[in-house]
Write a structure and sequence with these properties.
Elements (H helix, E strand, L loop, with lengths): L1 H10 L3 H9 L3 H14 L3 H23 L7
Length: 73
């Protein structure tokens, strides 16, 4: 079961896991609160989630661009 969970976390941008690391909360509790907030606010946190996922990918790309490996010259 853990294998499936880790696979889904990697494929689903890892926003909740990253927030959990930064805020010292478990990722599962952040996911649970996200689901509750989505139901209570009719899905508006999904937009915030997608913005955070986009921002994480942009930061990852910028870090790679600033320090290229030997194969990228």
């Amino acid at each position: 079961m853990d294998r499936i969970r880790y696979y889904v976390e990697d494929q689903a941008f890892g926003v909740c896991a990253k927030l959990g690391e930064k805020l010292s909360f478990s990722a599962s509790s952040i996911r649970l609160y996200f689901i509750y907030a989505s139901f209570l606010t009719f899905g508006s946190p999904i937009i915030i989630y997608l913005v955070l996922a986009f921002w994480m990918e942009v930061r990852k790309h910028l870090r790679r661009h600033q320090s290229p490996t030997i194969w990228e010259f």
